[in-house]
Design a protein that fits this description.
The complex is a heterodimer of chains A (87) and B (168). By secondary structure, chain A is an alpha+beta fold. Chain A has a single domain, classed as Glutaredoxin, CATH 3.40.30.10. Chain A contains 3 helices and 4 strands, in the order βαβαββα. A 4-stranded mixed beta sheet of chain A has the order 2-1-3-4, with helices on both faces. In chain A, β3 and β4 form a beta hairpin. By secondary structure, chain B is of the alpha+beta class. Chain B has a single domain, classed as Glutaredoxin, CATH 3.40.30. Chain B has 6 helices and 11 strands. A 7-stranded mixed beta sheet of chain B has the order 3-2-6-5-4-9-10. Chain B has a two-stranded antiparallel ribbon with strand order 1-11. Classes of the chains: A alpha+beta (87), B alpha+beta (168). The interface between A and B is medium-sized, with 12 and 15 residues.
């Protein structure tokens, strides 16, 4: 898969509704993404802190635009604004 | 006469030296997260030592990874494990053992089926795991070295692995 590694990486937590919301938006926009799962304990999420500055998920890294972002509402707005109709 | 039983394992048809190891995609767990990855992703980056082992918590998994760690194998070659343990268990295992390697999670043992290395556990109904085995693969996933357990339990031939790594 490294041949065509998607530009968008989604840091997520299994069964997290906020993460699912972002997934739904990614799917609606037809965007390929690579899921990276972390653990529920905040203290176990250093990788997310390192890339986004915060330990919260969901977080996305979009290599198309160089954007890194947390908070599902912000991410959904960003994705719709960047990739949605009229973008 | 020993008063314990070492069980002989049946014949198998696992990939042999010169064969191409089957590709597969499973969650690959590192110290911080897991994501789907293919074996071919790893071999594209260089040779891979592919280690099939028991689920985390069983002593053979502990022994095998302690030994690989102490011999510095993960520093010499990309070393990845495969077991039926969940990604959560794999992550805890890597931390507990202090192992700098990555582990594929294959809970339904589909990879074991692809490699003809399924091991149905006696006394754990419905649980099939991976028969202990080690494959050294080159960049084309061609098997350069193979060790497969003939007995249960059985442990890799670490000197054989070291020799195979020297021959790469």
């Amino acid at each position: 898969m490294s041949d065509e590694q998607p530009a968008i990486t989604l840091y997520r937590l299994q069964a997290c509704p906020f993460c699912e919301r972002v997934v739904r938006t990614l799917d609606e926009q037809g965007l390929a993404y690579q899921s990276r799962f972390v653990e529920p304990m905040h203290s176990d999420r250093n990788v997310v802190k390192r890339v986004s500055g915060k330990r919260s998920v969901p977080a996305i890294v979009d290599d198309n635009t160089g954007v890194t972002m947390s908070e599902s509402a912000n991410i959904v707005e960003y994705l719709e604004h960047t990739y949605g109709e009229g973008a | 006469m020993p008063d314990f039983d070492v069980v002989s394992l049946p014949d198998h048809d696992a990939p042999a030296v010169g064969d191409t190891a089957p590709d597969f995609t499973r969650p690959l767990v590192n110290a911080e997260f897991w994501e789907d990855a293919s074996l071919s992703d790893l071999t594209d980056d260089g040779p891979v030592l592919l280690v099939f082992h028991t689920m985390a918590g069983a002593f053979p998994a502990t022994y095998v990874w302690n030994e690989l760690r102490d011999r510095g194998v993960p520093e010499d070659v990309q070393t990845v494990g495969v077991s039926i343990s969940s990604p959560y268990e794999h992550k805890s295992f890597l931390e507990a053992r202090g192992v700098d390697a990555r582990l594929f999670s294959d809970p339904a043992a589909g990879v074991a089926a692809d490699y003809d290395l399924e091991h149905d556990l006696d006394g754990m109904a419905g649980v099939t795991e991976h028969r202990p085995a080690v494959f050294l693969l080159d960049e084309d996933r061609t098997v350069q070295y193979r060790w497969v357990a003939d007995e249960w339990p059985d442990f890799p031939d670490y000197e054989g692995i070291a020799d195979a790594l020297d021959d790469l």
